[in-house]
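Problem 12. The chain below contains 564 residues. Write out its predicted structure in token notation.
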Amino acid sequence: MKKGRKWKLLAGAMALVMTAGSLTACGSNEGQQAADSQPQSVAGTESAAAESAGAQESEASKITFPLAEQVELTIATPDSSVASLADQLPVWQEIQERTNIKINWDVTASAQYVEVMKLRVTAGGGDLPDIMLLPNGLSLSELGEQGIILPLESYIETNGENILKAYEEFPNARALTSADGHIYSINQLNESAYFSPYTFIIRKDWLDRLGLEVPDTIDDWMEVLRAFRDEDANGNGNPDDEVPYSAGGHAWYPTFWGNAWGLHLFQSDGWYPDENGQIQYEFISDRAKEFYTWLNGFYEEGLLDPEFLTLGDESKMFEKVARDEVGAFTAYASNIPTLEAALEANGVEGAELIPVIPPQGPYARQVEIIGDMSVNGYVVTSSCENPDVAVAFMDYLMSEEGSELLNFGIEGDTYVKEADGTYTFTEKVTNDPNGLSAREALEAYGCQVGGPFIKSEKREEAMLFSYPEELRETIIEVSDATRPYIVPGLTLPPATAEESASIEGIAGDLSTYIWEMTGKFTVGVSDIEAEWDSYVEYVHTLGVDQLLAVKQAQYDRLQEAMAE
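Solution.
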């Protein structure tokens, strides 16, 4: 779930509703450098970009690892919060040995990375790393036109076998890397987005106590939640202390139910193409009106936690779950063991939480997941003297060998690969002597930090090692059963500089208003029938049509690039 970004966008809406390193250029050993591979000026122009594009054709050559002679690459990236990449973590030591590339890490604390790198890019000069994670807010096409970053397509054609393979598995990836026809970045891909997605979780023991089956349709859910409300589902003798369904702490959370109406409100912010390839803003659609009407009835019946707007965040909801008050909620299944342990600690015996597949609704059975790739990727700057090596190195990180290293660590040390292709972590991960969680132990080892890689679904399955066997099997079964209904959130190519300028400031104002009205429609402060037309009209006043035009252009570029 894109939680961090959501909270920045939505904080204003919530209030309204509640009132109603060292810098080094890329180098190599002497004799390694070709006469035509000198660094360009970062303050280049369009002609400089054209020269760099032409230079690719002559420089590209097949590269194999380990290199005969060592090459150095400087990589700028947000640092790990567990252990600094500058300390040459074990996985990256292994990668350097296998490739004969020495990495000079140019790391910044994650919270400061975007602003620090924006300042450095804006300052120009030759003071840029060879490879850097593109900071949010910078335009690939604009930096490419200025010659600050290099087009990569010819290098990928020669030394990007694994990148090209990833493009086949993730067909949107290539199109997301540019806005002007060139490929400028190598993005992180998320195969694990399809494993155990954000979903509905329900108290199986409450169902059993009331003699009910796991709900399958929206109508089934209504019947079950009414029973939770009325029939002392937690068995404490008080039929009035149960919350049938609870959610987060914002108007955004209940829109997860909109999946059953075929809407894409939860991860795509309402922007989604229709069957004709036309981007729609679904928050003002007739179907959204129908969904909001249902959601208001859901609230009025007492099925939705009356405190859902004031909980603040998911942790407050989890506290209510742990107090044996909540029958169903939405979350990642990874929360289940902790919540069951909390329930037991609070004296609740036999509590059982299970994830379930999305319900069949009036228009769909679907679950929208976070996009299966990052929006921003790693770019090669014009300071790099060996861009062919830089691309070949990133290609290695996305190979089967590189992926195993970056997801699991070093075989025999942090993991064992079983004969059936599954992975088992060693005690170095499962029982870290410093008390780190498994994820923290792997990050401290250098896994899933520092460069473009593919987040492995098999790693997520292996991370279930601490779960009871029955729960592990349930999560895997539900993941497999949910897969046919998964819809990745819409991820679009970068906007051009002109497009960005044309919509500056619109998205924030629109988001604030949408979430304000979502809350008001849900709790009945605003009457849907009486105020819908004025709501839609004001959305247009805020500039939704300008945003639609830009997003349509982005989507069209995506389709064109995928058709190539």
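Discussion. The first strand starts at residue 27 and ends at 28. Students who got a different answer should revisit the alignment rule from Section 12.3.
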